[in-house]
Amino acid sequence: MQYSDDIIDALSIDCVIFGFKETQLYVLLVKHGIGPTLGQWALPGSWIRYNESIDEAANRILSSQTAVGNIYLEQFKTFGDLERFPARRVITIAYYALVNIENFELHAGPTEADVQWFKVWDVPKMAFDHKTIFESCLSFLKHKVQHEPIGFNLLPPKFTLLQLLELYEAILNQKLDKSNFRKKFLKMNLLVDTKERQQDVSHRAATLYRFDENIYNKLLDKGFIFEV
């Protein structure tokens, strides 16, 4: 194999990290503390090291932001426009993660001036083409949550049907019929009644449910189709 100066040697990872809290869907952004994009907001990202796989690089980026493990993380898409990075050809592999904000303690990395959650419908201007990456990933998430039960990764282990409804409304950015939504999910038999109710609430305490992944996998083997 011959090598030349035309070979691309710059490969990076960028992560779109989604969180959900109190009827709102959020995305995690970092403010660059050094370099040509000093002071600009961006998606958490990093160069891929020679001694790690791309999945290891994505998990390293996540671990630099929080100590929480077992986070839903999936490779999304590769972005490689010629002018996406100044003075150098850089290709980035985008991942997206779904996290429970309540368990997600933020940590700014060594090259970051700040790290914050932003509502997905009110994000600031971002460095490079990160706004394009984010918007593309959000559109993908809208489609995927309607065909796979990945949205449960954004909720606490025990949740109410109202919380589940509010999650889907936040992701899809539209109001849903409460009664039909409730019937549809209960009919799928994916939710387990924990026999518990909300605590310390001013309104009537609602029943708490949990998602049973084992039941879902067994239903998949039988040809079950998840559709919301």
TrEMBL record:
Positions of the NrtR DNA-binding winged helix domain: 151-211
InterPro entries referenced in this protein's UniProt entry, alphabetically: NUDIX_hydrolase-like_dom_sf (IPR015797), NUDIX_hydrolase_dom (IPR000086), WH-like_DNA-bd_sf (IPR036388), WH_DNA-bd_sf (IPR036390), WHD_NrtR (IPR054105)
Domain Nudix hydrolase per the UniProt entry, residue ranges: 12-135
Coiled coil: none
Protein name per the record: DNA mismatch repair protein MutT
Lineage: Bacteria, Pseudomonadati, Bacteroidota, Cytophagia, Cytophagales
